[in-house]
Each structure stands twice: as structure tokens, then as C-alpha cells.
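Hi R.,

Here are the chain sequences for the assembly we discussed:
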Amino acid sequence: MLVTSALITGLALGSMYGLLALGFYITYAVSSTVNFAQGSSMMLGAVFAYTFAVTLGWPFLPAALLALALCALYGMLVELLAVRPFARRGSSAWLMATVALGIIADNTVLFTFGKEPRGFSLAWATGSVQIAGINVSHLQIAIPVVGLSLAAALHLFSRKTRPGKAMLAVVQNPDAARLMGINVPLAISIAYAASTLLAGAAGIMIAPLFNVHSDMGTLFGLKAFAVAILGGITSAWGVMLAGLIFGLTESLITALLGSAYTQILSFALVIVALALMPNGLFGRAEVKKV
Amino acid sequence: MKLLLAAFAFLLGISNANAQTIKIGLVTALSGQSARAGEAITRGLTVAIEEINAKGGVLGRKLELVRRDDEATPAKGVIAARELVFREKVAVLFGGLDTPVSLAIVPIVNQEKVPFMGPWAAGTPITKNGANPNFVFRVSAVDEIVNRAMLQYAQKTFNAKNCGMILVNNPWGESNEKGLLAALGAKGMKPAGIEKFEGNDVDVVPQLTRLKNAGADCLFLVGNVGPSAQVVKSLDRMGWKPPIVSHWGPAGGRFTELAGPSAKDVHFVQTYSFFGKQTPVGQKVLKALMAKYPDIKSPGDVTPAVGVANAYDAMMLTAMAIQNAGSTDGAKIREGYYKIGQYQGLIKTYNKPFTPGNHDAVNENDYVWTQFIDNQILPVGMKK
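And here is the predicted structure of the full complex:
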């Protein structure tokens, strides 16, 4: 019972880490840059969805869809304002600029959404079913299902659709892609939109389990970056799997050894894994041809 | 002529000094999860200060409240406290809800000899900090006393024999772990288990499952409003409904909204309730609050009541201490607290509330057990 409940908790949390980390993967693959404030994108998803669904009283689905669209738009804005101007000059200042934009987003939400955390309960999410003798809420089942489905959808998008293939071409050789008429800046912009959309989806799903407030994404963003590195940031499935492994490890350590050891052991294991496999669990060493 | 000028300058100085207000500093959370607690403390202090100022102030000078937001973070609390002590030159500094923040401020006030009054944070080492002289006073619950009361309440109300602890992982949680172990030990008992959780934990099911498997028949909960809500939601997901006896963390915000319908199952300690029959002081304060704040239309709107009540009494006692001191010198105000005799306050009638050996004015006889019914904190069992 102890292990089963830990596995269910770990799967839900792990798929959230995976979704956020997948956002790091997409932008890194296409442009070798990432949005370090991915936690803020997650928070924005939850705040937008709360505003539409609770404050304005819209049905959940249109509220969530508009929230995701706004997240995608925010991602394009991040790329346009905080990444493109610096990456174009070969500067690494995008690193700090994305963090700064995240802080601006967090504080804007603090002043507009409010200082107090808000509860985001969904009627369909409160029910539960019995699995292996333990109570599992609908939300705990929905989170990994939606998380893995989104990862699969991303995989299909990149393999089966024209914009997806264009993005893959940019990943393989940006100069050749440009010569073939592919709009490289647009591909990068789309990658950032997809990245923040995934983070926003994670925020919307985690909100009913947690609560909605301006700094809800900070710790998630940090853990997701560790997950992205652990998975080997160059492999989509690797990153998603690393998210699940990290989530499961966290909850199993808590369940079996006690919560005092969770953070110490889970991050120590990340260091050990990276020491043994410097390119991450599923990443490949980068080969530079000269 | 020189003498006349000197006398004029002296009188000018006196009149300026008289015109100057006595600044009362407040470092508390004004944003984030504990924002409501900070607002409650502010309201209690404001009503008391306006009452004092209407009667001519203290030492012939008006009192002025100067607030700073600590964002529930010790580092920010220390910066805010330094600013209030060194730049604003407050006569007395008030603290907020968070024990870690207050613990970080204690060394500064003891070093700078500025009296520090705690109207909320309950960590035992805040007042029992080992400093001599000790400039820290409190009109609030004290963990080690609350912990004895929690055990007593769990045994009496729920016939609990094997309680488990679920504590937030910070100095406040540690302070309560020690206090609860001591309370259990005094009765020859042991906890079913001790589990910690982080303030930002989404799911506390693994910790709670460990306690359930250890045979816990009740839970001692210690955490602020957000983390406490996470525990209640996790219990809901597990379908486990043990009695929950809590410190007063849930009182600090929108607990019912965050925790859902099961919020009402958490019984937590308070020092005051504006429900039921009120003393003349209670009636006066409630009237003043309703006149000052349009959102307060009934006792249920004074929330969290503990912040308002503690802050009101603490401010009144502080004004008496300054009056007794005859100046705004920190060391003299400290002595002034010891000279307070009897005072009919909101929580109780205080009789020599502070002595060199006791800097805590409230004890276990002053506690009230409460629960959330909808969005209001009511004494347990009382209907709206």
C-alpha cells in the first residue's frame, strides 16, 4: 500500500516535471537556448486558467484552451524579447534575460492577480476510484495520462507535420534549412511557443492539487531543469522518462525512508547519475565535426 | 541675549519633540500566503493606536505605525527590521506570523536594545532566547504551551492514544516537534511517527501513508495556511479521516478555499474569538473595527481574529510600558513592561503580565479551540 500510493504520487508529479523539462528540450534542440524561467510559464498557465474559469466563470475547457493560447503567445514574446536579440549576436546574455523576464512575469502576477494563494477546485477532479486497495483521485490518473499524451502529440507533430519537419531540419542544420527556404526564426519562435504551452498545461493540471499563486512555479522550474539535464537534454523521450524517474524517486524515498531524506537523496542521486553518465541518462555526446 | 536665545532654542526643541510621533515598527508578511495574517495584525495595531491617540497619545506624543513586508522570508525580515531600527528609529518593533522571521530578528533587537513585541509567531525560542538582557516580549501563544494543550485536547476530545506528527519543515516545525515530544514524554507516551513536509509540497500522501501504517489515530498538524491545506487535500485523496488537532496555522488565510470542504475537520488553537458574549473591551474593539473597515460587518469578518486580538492587547501593553518608561529609550521601555500592573484587555485581564523571568503574557488558560465553518473561524461546536 505504501509503495503503491508512492508510485501513483510519483507518476503524477513526475509527468509534470517531464512536461516542463520537455519545454527545455524543444527550445534547446532548435536553438541551443532555453527559457530558464520555465516555472513562470507554468504559473502563468494556472493563473490564466483560474482567471477565466473561476473569476470570469467560464466552462473549464474554453478557459484552459485560451490559457494555453496565451501561454504560447508568452513563449513567443520570451523568444522575441529575451532570446533573439542576444543569440543573434552570439551572446549568452539570453540566459539572464529569460530569468529576468520570468521575475517580471512573477511580479506582474503578484500585483494583478493578488498576493494570496487561491484554491482552484474542479468538480470532475475531486472524485476518486479504488486501485489496488488505495484511493486514487481522478486528477492523479488524468495528470500522467494528459502529460504522456502531450509528449506523444509533440512527437507526432515533429515527425508527421510540415512545421514539425521544418523544426527537425533546423535542429539538424540551421544553415541548410535556411537555404531550403525554411523560416528559421519562425521555427525557433514556434519552439518557444510549444515550450511555454507545455509548461502552461502542467500548471493548469497541477493547480487543483496545489494552489494558484505567483511563485508556485519556482521550485518546479528548478527541478524540471535538473530533470532535463538528467534525461540528456537532447532526447525528448529521455527527458520525459527522466521526469517520471525523478518523480518516482522522490516519492519512493519519502515513503520508504521518510520525508527528511527526500531532497538530500533525490538531488544526490542526480549528481551521481550525471557523474556516471555525463550526457544524462538518455543523451548522446555531442560530436563536433571540424 | 545668549541666554534668551538658548532658552528659545530649548523650547523650540521641546515643541519639535512634542510634535514628533513615537514610531511603532511592524515587520510582517503583507504579501504571499500569510498576507491576511499581516493585515490582521495591522488592523489590531491600528485600532489600538487610534484609541490611544484619541486620548492624547503616550508621553504627550501621538503613535505612528510604520510597516514593512517581510514576504515570510527571514532575510527580508532582517533587512526590514534593520531599516526600521536604524533609519526610522522605531521605539518598539512588532513582529509577524512567521517564527523563522522572528527568530532572525531577535539577535538584532537584543544587540540594538530595541524592544521587540511578538503578536503572533509562537516559536518557543523567540522569547526564551538566552539573551541577557532580553528585549523580546510576546502577547501570543507559545509553542511548548500550545503543544501541551494540543495533546490534552486530542486525548479529551478524540480519546487519542497514538498521535502522529505532520510538521512543516522549518524552525517552527522543529520548535513544535520538541514541544510535542516533551508533552508526550511527560505522560509516558510516544508519537506514532514524525513526518515533515515542505511548504511547497504538492502531495503529502507518502508522509501521511507512513503515519497511517504506523497506526496513528490522530494527527498533530503544524504548518501555515497553504501547507496545512495541502495536508488536508492529501488526506481527502487518501480517503483517510483521522481527527486533526492543529496549531493555529490554518487561521492565517483562505483555508476553506484552499483545503476544500474538509477544512472544517481541522480543530486549531486560537487565543480569542469575537463570537459569543463579549466583554466591554471586546464590544468596544469590534465596534471600532466595524467603523474603520467597511468589510467588517459581523464578528465573522474579523479574520484571523487571533492576529487582531493579540496585536490590540500587545499595543495597549506596549503603550503602558512606554508611559511607565517615561521616554522612548529601549532599555527603559523594557523595564516599563515589568512595571505594568493590572490591565483589562481583550484576551483577558492581565495582572503583572511580564516579569524578568516571563516574557509571555498569554498562557494555556487563555486558549480557545476553533474550526473553520465556511470562511469563518468559530469556536468548536458553535453554529453560525
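The radius of gyration of chain B is 22 Å. Confidence is low (pLDDT under 50) at residues 10-18 of chain B.

Let me know if anything looks off.

Best,
T.
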